[in-house]
Structures are given as structure tokens and as C-alpha cells.
């Protein structure tokens, strides 16, 4: 018997280009977050905490980190013989040889996976948001109200509503109109990209959308189609903490929120745990020379210098004389002696040399990606190397194994970049 009441489909194939160099080598859902987690952990943990044990994870862009992290789903108790977690990559078939070309197209290509479980309902999720949500409450409301489709919505500030898909509803929260990023929004109920569909209705809509659109999408095609067909589309209002960490600034800010005196988003609640695939690490080591003020520290991290208001991942080494402030240092990074980092994001496995300064100078927008790097954050890419004694300004982006000759007079001015291609051996 393989029938399941509900199957969750988790969209995790996007690059997340607004995160800049943080997603050069990995998909956005696999980016480190909060010292020990990856972004996708929050959605996967929501599933198992909500009693949903059949999850398809749709991957595409740079899936290696994500595939390794998910494995067979043991950390989330999703290693089931029937159900559990299944990684779904694009594949060649007699009818199709294409990559996923839209959110709905990705689900369409995996209709056989869903059909195998004969579900009554399909839950559509995104793998790149930070939140805790009991999907079973949304499903119960969906069934109680006799809805065909339920869309989770979140009230946002009116001045920000033009950035979202906005749901216009009647007094019973039945959606009567959907507007994608309207210039003059009629209300502030923003779609969270979380949908519950009656599977028969979604299956039909996916097949029709595929005939009419090259890159079918839920917001642009499926939801408007279902509204036009007269389906009962219901808004489910969510009141908790939810963050889209799709930009470098929002990613940095949400990490920093975790270490406020009374964090709105609490990682330590026993009744709603966040699970992750984390190798067994040695304990943290805080040397006598260390000075730590309000930080999150991952397992196996060694601190010999000063760290203030920062999120430090697992197996990080911060040597003597360092001063790290308002920064995110990801797993396996090494910060060598007497280095200063202010408002930096240092990716996994990066090595920062001795006597380096990062994050000083004027707040000049990045010359290549001003829309991404404009809030004073300097980002160092995965496994990048910064040589000894260099000075790096604000809003810079650095990738690759850099050497002194890549810097002008040992300096990289604010808003400038060094992006070296990897050299194949």
C-alpha cells in the first residue's frame, strides 16, 4: 500500500542570483544559515514536524551540495521505505528532454512521482525561506472550508506590497483576484509561495498549462487559470516569522536577527526543532585570549581572537588578534592572525590571510552588481583565498585563490571585485 493523503513537492532548483557569489557553486536552498543549518532545513523540518512524510525535492542548479546534504533524509526522519524524501532532478524521457523551465513545469515533469502515491492533496513549497509553519493546520483549514486550492498569505507593509504576488479576497478569505507585483496594490496579503491543491485539479491545470506555455509558472499561469475556472481558492493567513532570504542584505539581516537579545525567530524551541545533516564534531574551543560577545558558534569551532555580534559556523578557526564584527563566517573557514572583518560574509572553506582588513572605507555600490552589493556587505566566495596583508573595502565580491598581484597596492577599493576562474589541474 503506497497511497498517501498528501505529498509535498519542494522547489529547490533555483540559483538565487540575488545572493551574488554565495550561489556561484551551490543552489540557494543549500547555502549555510544560522551557524549549522542550510536554508532548506527549515522547510524540511516543517514537513516532518507537520506529520508530512512524503517529500519530493526538485533540484536543478548546482545540486551537489544539496544532494549530499539531503542524502536519504535521515536527519529529518524521512528515510522511509514508502514515502520519505526523494531528490527529483530533470531527466530525459520520450516526450521531454528539457530542463525545468518554470515552477509549474517542474511539477508537471514529476506527475508520475506524485501519481505513484495517489494523493488527495499536493503541498507545493519553496526551499529558500526561513520560517516555522505547521502545514497540517493549513491542510485542516483547507478540508474544513471545502477549498480546491489554499494559498498561504502573509500581511506585509503596504509600501512593500508591490514586491509580491497580492491576493485580493472577500470577507471569507476566498481569493477573487490575484495580482503579480501590482503597482498600486489593493491590499497587503502577499503570497508566501505555499500552496495546497486538490491533486485532480492541479493535475488537470498542469497539463493544460503545458500545452499553452513554454515555461509554466504557478503565479503567472496556474493560479490565474484556476481562478478563471471558478475553483474555490482560499487564502490561509499566516501570522508567524517568515523571511525571504533571497538577497545578500536580507540573508545577512536574518542571520543577525538570530542573535538579538530576544530573537523573534527562536532556534532553540524544543517543541518545533529544526533538523539538519550535521557531522559529529568536536566541541567548541574558546581560548583564554578570546573575547566573544553575543554570537552563535557552530560545533568544532576554535576561537582565539575577538568575535562580536556574529554567526560562526562549524569547524571555523579564528586565530589570535582577529576582530570579527557583524559578520557571517561559514563552515570550515579559517581567519588567520590579526585580521579584521566588519560586516563580511565569508563562505564555506574560505581562507583569509594574516593582517587582512575587510569592510572598511566608503559605502560605494558594487561596480558590477550594484543591485546586489549595496548595503556595505563584502562577500568572499566558497573556498576562496585572501593573501596576507591586503585591505578590502565595502560591497566587494571575491572568488577564487587570489594572490597579491590581484590587488592594486595591496588594496581592493569599495565596490570592486576579484573573480578568478578555477584552474583545472
Low-confidence stretches: none
Regarding quaternary structure, what we see is single chain
Strand content: 25-35%
Shape: globular
Taking the sheet with the most strands, its summary is: 7 strands, mixed
Number of helices, counting only DSSP H or I runs of 4 residues or more: 8
What can you tell me about this protein's structure?
- There is one protein chain.
- The mean pLDDT is 92.
- This protein has eight helices and 33 strands.
- It starts with 5 loop residues before the first strand and ends in a 6-residue tail after the last strand.
- 18% of the residues lie in helices and 27% in strands.
- α6 crosses α7 (218-228).
- With 425 residues, it is an alpha/beta fold.
- The longest helix has 14 residues, at 199-212.
- It has a seven-stranded mixed sheet with strand order 5-4-1-6-11-8-12, sandwiched between helices. Strands 15-18-21-24-27-30-32 form a seven-stranded parallel sheet, with no helix packed on it.
- The radius of gyration is 23 Å and the shape is globular.
What's the short version?
The protein has 425 residues and is α/β, with parallel strands linked by helices.
Please render the helix and strand layout as text.
Elements: E1 6-11, E2 32-33, E3 37-38, H1 40-49, E4 54-58, H2 64-70, E5 84-88, H3 103-108, H4 111-117, E6 121-126, E7 129-131, H5 135-144, E8 149-155, E9 165-169, E10 175-180, E11 189-198, H6 199-212, H7 218-228, E12 233-237, E13 242-244, H8 248-257, E14 285-286, E15 291-293, E16 296-297, E17 302-303, E18 306-308, E19 311-312, E20 317-318, E21 323-325, E22 328-329, E23 334-335, E24 340-342, E25 344-346, E26 351-352, E27 357-358, E28 378-380, E29 385-386, E30 391-392, E31 397-399, E32 411-412, E33 417-419
Parallel strand pairs: 1-4, 1-6, 4-5, 8-12, 14-17, 15-18, 16-19, 17-20, 18-21, 19-22, 20-23, 21-24, 22-25, 23-26, 24-27, 25-28, 26-29, 27-30, 28-31, 30-32, 31-33
Antiparallel strand pairs: 2-3, 6-11, 7-13, 8-11, 9-10
